Amino acid sequence: MGTLISNTLAILPSGETHTAGRHDIYVDGTDIVGIDEAPRGFVADQTIDGSRRLTIPGLVNAHTHTYMSMMRNVADDLSFADWLFGTIEPLEDRLEPEDAYWASLLSQVEMIHSGTTCFNDMQMHIGQTTRAVVESGMRAVICRGLVGGEYDLNERRIREALEERDAFADCDRLSFRLGPHAPYSCGPDYLRGVADLAQREGMGIHIHIAESQTESDNLWEQHHCTPVEYVRDAGIFEVPTIAAHCIRVNESDRSILAEHGVSVVTNPASNMKLGNGFAPVPELVAAGINVCLGTDGAASNNAQNMFREMSLLALVHKGTHDTPQCISAEETLAMATRNAAKALELPTGAIEVGKKADLVLLDLDAPSLMPLNNPVAALAYSANGSEVTDVIIDGRTVLRNRELLTIDEERVRHEIARICQRLGLA
């Protein structure tokens, strides 16, 4: 399938920054095959008039839990402990596998409409999020949440994670990691076992680290180390690791993360809402750490909108550090695109020949983008996601003129309402 996006204002990589200019973008199959010049033999099966569109690389949500979408607005204004142990975990225990499928689809509806083309998911119900991804056309990295004290290779969750990876091996848009939940839910022996398994299987790891002060205090009291040291000593950083949150990390922790090439995902809305604070993003960047951006689940964020997250990221640290220069719009866009693609080891995150065709088109006539002036600044400070008109993932158009082509939105709404009624949430 050949697609030509003609005469569009496009954001292209330029070294460590971006440039905006008028371009023709050629897509053949799943890949970007030309910019401004059609490759020999190219045939456009569809042409998209990009003259009133801003084309950007698809946004990458580097940390979320898509099955949590039905839990939005049910556990608000609570302490982290009351939110997690008092409300969310008991609700999770009542979920049926099919609930997770519809909830993940709902998250994917929201993400596609707001310009996200790929997400890194820590999930509980085997086969449900992956099934939803196959149907929606999104790109995803799936991580089975793992908890335990002693490690046993035959432990059910670990076995399920490997079986799920093998069952969906034929879907190029899916990749898999192991997801040990957090230092407070995984013992050191368990983490060592997961790290060893990840090395043998050639898999990366996705884990929560240093999310709250309570976590840090408890680990210090019990093990006389920080969460980062605890995870390092268990061998997790010996394989490619994505660490969500990293709020309570000191200078020594940052050096450890940088030394081991750990990518950090900051989640400003979720972290603020739960009163956990902010990841020290400027300091993480200064330490040479690859920083990415994620929403976390809708139970704590209440949204899956990466434009909202970009705006918060770009603004929060200016206020906390008393300087408007600490996080730029350029850095913000990179964290939501190419930094995340690097962390997830995916050939996406930029509009350039050879990358996968994960592209998002925004309406230049939207009031929020007028006058445009600086397109990169507009993405960080002005856009809210409502401007998205078209989304292409892996070369396939999944959203055209704001209409979803792969998901029956009415059916999703119906099923979510049914599930919420059963759970007493309606």
Written overview of the protein:
With 426 residues, the protein is of the alpha/beta class. It folds into two domains: 113 residues, Urease, subunit C, domain 1 (Roll); 286 residues, Metal-dependent hydrolases (TIM Barrel, Alpha-Beta Barrel), CATH 3.20.20.140. It is 37% helix and 24% strand. Strands 1, 2, 3, 4, 5, 14, 15, 16 and 17 form a nine-stranded mixed beta sheet that branches. A hairpin with a 2-residue loop joins β1 and β2. α2 runs parallel beside α3, α2 packs across α15 and α11 crosses α12. It is globular, with a radius of gyration of 21 Å.
Task: Write a compact overview of the structure shown.
The chain is 37% helix and 24% strand. The protein has helices spanning 80-93, 97-113, 128-136, 156-167, 188-201, 213-223, 227-233, 251-259, 268-273, 281-286, 306-320, 329-336, 338-344, 375-381, 409-422, and strands at 2-14, 17-28, 31-35, 46-49, 53-57, 59-64, 116-123, 139-146, 174-180, 204-209, 241-245, 263-266, 291-293, 359-363, 388-393, 396-400, 403-404.
